[in-house]
Amino acid sequence: xxxxxxxxxxxxxxxxxxxxxxxxxxxxxxxxxxxxxxxxxxxxxxxxxxxxxxxxxxxxxxxxxxxxxxxxxxxxxxxxxxxxxxxxxxxxxxxxxxxxxxxxxxxxxxxxxxxxxxxxxxxxxxxxxxxxxxxxxxxxxxxxxxxxxxxxxxxxxxxxxxxxxxxxxxxxxxxxxxxx
Length: 180
Hints:
By secondary structure, the protein is of the alpha+beta class. Helix content is about 20%, strand content about 25%.
């Protein structure tokens, strides 16, 4: 069956999953850190704190409990259904905070990556969901079809699962695991 703009029904739900099993950059206690060495035998992790420019050591258990994923600017744009060139406009509008750079004190510079934590992405998503997109409506309601739902964002971050159930017409409809 064909839906909007000549796309197939299965292509209409295009959710990218941002998963990187070899992720080396994380947020730990609000600081951007990079893993430099893991010793499974001793259960210790050696980290480079990019924000404070110091080397740290912590236990593997504490690291896994406190860490938050770090997403690059382009990954953040994909998660929020925007193009990466739209991120400066969202920052200027106050819908998205400034990203944390790899340089000391979180400074950003050309040829250095900048990152958002998953908490910042969730806060921005909640703020964008309450913001009207387009021309104002006469009835005062909010129309925003661009911002992903909580289930879509959770799935795109790799935390949620999606199932396909067969409906009465024989088509497979995506259903998120929270609604099953």
